[in-house]
Write a structure and sequence with these properties.
The protein contains two helices and five strands. The chain is an alpha+beta fold and 112 residues long. The radius of gyration is 21 Å and the shape is elongated.
């Protein structure tokens, strides 16, 4: 009589260290390096952020957040640009639920 062990992914038995390494590798493969923007892209982002601030309309700000050295995820926040701080090089985005200060160098896109 043979005993069949339920092994849905066909990997057999794995040490916890191997499982952790596979999960870490899968996660790291989803990370991206920081985006370098062209001058015209930065000008469009600046124009939309200033328009959001002066005309009080919401935009979606996409930004890069470092998760590992030189690698990160793209996050986004929807809201009104309330302030651009040139000294701290950050932008303040506000919506009904949240307030975020985002580094200007991390912004990858602003969608109006």
């Amino acid at each position: 009589m043979s005993i069949k062990i339920n092994d849905p992914i066909g990997m057999g038995f794995m040490l916890p260290e191997h499982v952790a390494a596979l999960v870490n590798h899968a996660y790291e493969s989803t990370l991206v390096p920081r985006t370098v923007l062209e001058d015209d892209e930065m000008a469009d982002i600046d124009r939309l952020m200033r328009a959001s601030m002066t005309e009080d309309f919401a935009v979606t700000v996409r930004y890069w957040k470092e998760m590992r050295p030189e690698l990160g995820e793209i996050h986004q926040m929807w809201g009104v640009v309330q302030r651009i701080d040139p000294v701290r090089r950050q932008v303040k985005v506000v919506n009904d639920e949240d307030i975020a200060w985002i580094n200007l160098r991390d912004i990858t896109a602003v969608i109006g």
